[in-house]
Design a protein that fits this description.
The structure is a single chain. With 131 residues, the protein is an alpha+beta fold. The protein has one domain. The chain has 3 helices and 5 strands; from the N terminus they run H-H-E-E-E-H-E-E. A 3-stranded antiparallel beta sheet has the order 3-5-4, covered by helices on one side. It has a two-stranded antiparallel sheet with strand order 1-2. It is elongated.
Length: 131
């Protein structure tokens, strides 16, 4: 396998050419998954899902909305079905604009003939903060 391929930075635009505009607001709308860290409300704010109990936002309460970024990192062994499923879940959301990839490193394990992928990403949500 080409060593340059394994260490290429992640480029969601495939070499500067946009695939499609982000589609997470329709593709993932309504999604509820424990990997989000809470219940999501869609469409959220500015297309970013709202995480937490739904509150009736009066004008003064809108000032208590904050954008939070959950940092995540993991090494995925793509020969393991559970890791492969989670890797695909994360990368699908990165490629569609819901998550942001900060770093990716692909490592071929020649002894076990498997691909290991280390990924760092951010999951963004709006939340309501009490005073």
């Amino acid at each position: 396998m080409d060593e340059n391929f394994l260490n290429m930075p992640f480029d969601p635009t495939l070499g500067g050419k946009d695939i499609l505009p982000p589609s997470f607001d329709t593709k993932f709308k309504g999604e509820q998954d424990p990997r989000h860290g809470g219940v999501l409300s869609w469409p959220g704010i500015e297309g970013i899902p709202f995480r937490g109990p739904v509150v009736d936002l009066k004008e003064e309460e809108r000032n208590r909305l904050v954008l939070v970024n959950d940092f995540k990192c993991q090494t995925f062994d793509l020969s393991q079905p559970e890791d492969k499923e989670y890797y695909n879940w994360v990368m699908d959301r990165i490629c569609n604009g819901l998550f942001k990839c900060l770093y990716i490193n692909r490592m071929w394990n020649n002894e076990h003939k498997t691909m290991l992928v280390y990924v760092e990403w951010v999951q963004s949500y709006y939340e309501h903060r009490d005073k």
